[in-house]
Amino acid sequence: MVDVGESLRAKGMRMTPQRERILDAVRRLGHATPDAIVEAVGADGGAPLAPSTVYRSLEVLEELGVVSHTHLDHRSPTWHLADHADHLHLVCMGCGATIESDVEHASGFAGNLLAAHGFVADIKHMAIHGWCEQCSKQRQQ
């Protein structure tokens, strides 16, 4: 994993206590919206952080390659550690469940895009909307 403090210093920044708390919250939560991160940081015993501080810190941490985000729906992005970005997100439009799937399951799709358009897809940021097995069965009845 990237040495965050060193990467920040190389850009003339430093690892602030706020950034450390935000990174810790992302580690604990796994996948989290900025609002969930604000809530988690507010519950960690330290002073509450403004949502704008959380957003700015997430952007800096993403620029460093420490965190990454995915858009699971039309609302806020979901953030996670960048080294956890090795899967697809299957989002059920029926029950709202999110299922993680290996990126290899989309390799054919990515290959088709490359062959047809010369487009190199970053499938590890992919969220596919549809229906989980249970909701699909209910829809068919």
TrEMBL record:
Residues annotated as binding Zn(2+): C92, C95, C132, C135
InterPro entries per the UniProt record, alphabetical: FUR, Fur_C, WH-like_DNA-bd_sf, WH_DNA-bd_sf
Keyword Membrane applies: no
Keyword Transcription attributed: yes
GO BP term, example: negative regulation of DNA-templated transcription
Cofactor note: Binds 1 zinc ion per subunit.
Keywords: DNA-binding, Metal-binding, Repressor, Transcription, Transcription regulation, Zinc
Any GO molecular function: transcription cis-regulatory region binding
CDD domains, sorted: Fur_like
Similarity-based family: Belongs to the Fur family.
The protein, known as: Fur family nickel uptake regulator
